[in-house]
User: Fold Ceramide kinase from Haplochromis burtoni.
Amino acid sequence: MERPGRLLLQSELRVRNAAYDVSLSRSLLIWKRRTSSPVYHPFRPSVCHSVPVSEIISVREEEEENGSRQRDDGSWKKIREREGKDCRQAFTVLYVERCRQHRWRCAEVTFTCSDEAVCQHWVSSIREQLASNTSRPKHLLVYINPYGGKRQGKRIYEQKVAPLFTQAGIATSVIVTEYANHARDHLKMEAELKKFDGVVCVGGDGMFSEIIHGLIWRTQIDCGVDPNSTEEALSPCSLRIGIIPAGSTDCICFASVGTNDPVTSALHIIVGDSQPLDVCSVHHNNMFLRYSVSLLGYGFYGDVLSDSERKRWMGPARYDFSGLKMFLTHHYYEGTVSYLPAKGIIGTPRDATRCRSGCVICQHNGQLNSERSEKYEMDEASDSESSGEWRTIRGKFLAINAASMSCACPRSPKGLSPAAHLADGTTDLILVRKCSRFNFLRHLLRHTSKDDQFDLTFIEVHRVRRFRFMPRHCQSDSDLELDLHENSKRQIFSQICKDHPACGCAPAYSSWNCDGEILTHTAIDVRVHGQLIKLFARGIEELPVFEDLSNPCAI
Ligand SMILES: CCCCCCCCCCCCC/C=C/[C@@H](O)[C@H](COP(=O)(O)O)NC(=O)CCCCC
Ligand SMILES: Nc1ncnc2c1ncn2[C@@H]1O[C@H](COP(=O)(O)OP(=O)(O)O)[C@@H](O)[C@H]1O
Ligand SMILES: [Ca+2]
Assistant:
């Protein structure tokens, strides 16, 4: 909690017929009940409230007309009778209130006073403070996917989000998409981005993916960077992106805010939060395929996605159905994974610490990465195989997952890689080697419990800056010869594989699940671009444990 700082305004005002000392500084609005007895009363409601000015949504004058007061939004409210006959002027402050499980709500408090000039002074002072905050957006470009999740995107935006934007004085230009990639192409080619302070998408991870593809591409073109290059450093996007969750998994929203609640996301946009985010570029044979910010998954998650796309009519439940089906199918895939470990950074995928609001690991590693990328531009060979830092793993895998953030979502509140960071310039490469169904189930179930999903012999996890995957059937002849030699050795000593008999029914390839979109190529080269984009979010807030002494109400 912040200290109040120099006071801008202090008055005695009334809240629901009780007298309060109200003060405003640049950082805090505080209202403290005047009490005749200094004796502590355990059953009396809280007597001191404080709200950071940065979390005030707006201030509204209540105008008097025929004994009642009319709000400046046109709705009527009887204040005079309720608040005492001598109180004639009133204003209402709307502010962020924290609820359970990282949810935010819009709360309000109405102050009344007998002097009109005092009331006016309060309203204009609060408005001045809000206007001086340059991080708040004034004009937003909004894309709604009416087709994602339970097809509620339009209703969610109109009923829950638009009224809050109006209250906060944010102007919007709204586009309801008419086809897949409508938002991406509009951002790439048409949108007048200079007019806006941010872009908002209403939908799931697929819709967010459309937005970043449009925005990153447009930024590179504007900055003269080749967006298809595997080696060039990409230019960061200046416009922030807001996510109003209305999809099936909503992992990107959940992992960066702590909940998938549209009102909470709208409030983070209004207060002008900013959270940098890593982005992976995915290439095949030097050809750009896609960007990814959450999960790049081959094997299990690729198969779940391919199977579920044919069952869109089921809505979000399609993932549960296909998840169960693919678990029972139990396919494994052969191939080679090579990766460049993230060196010199703080943190490992097995840490107990979590990426939270104001994360110091993201700050430290982000700084390190930007120094490195400057050096990299001077010495282009530093990331290359010739540096000898690459490591290679060949094998049979049930899943190969790269989690650039925790990938927490309502199905798995701690996520695929609980210690992954939003903005540390790395991705956690999780290799699930071929194992029994029972063991794979143990691993999956640990995504939903407190147990460590990596503490199993068939799992490896590495924090990396870059990785490549080559399915076995694309490998060179010399690699295949090596495999054949290894296989013949193994068959002598190991039991015959019961999962996939020699009939050849097992597929040789899976596909990649790239933030919920299917990739058409299996051999890929992935590179992390640290903090390439920014969200209207602040990372998951640490839950308060106890009131500390810096609480201004305790002073
Ligand atoms: C037997 C108990 C099994 C429990 C396993 C739970 C593990 C769930 C981890 C989910 C990670 C999700 C990572 C996010 C992926 C999304 O980007 C993607 C698309 O989202 P959207 O556009 O909103 O539809 N969602 C998926 O790929 C769904 C994976 C579900 C797997 C069961
Ligand atoms: N108007 C539209 N009609 C059909 N598909 C769309 C439309 N707008 C966006 N899409 C596509 O819908 C897909 C799913 O969107 P998303 O919002 O992620 O929902 P979900 O979470 O249910 O998958 C994305 O691939 C996106 O490109
Ligand atoms: Ca990361």
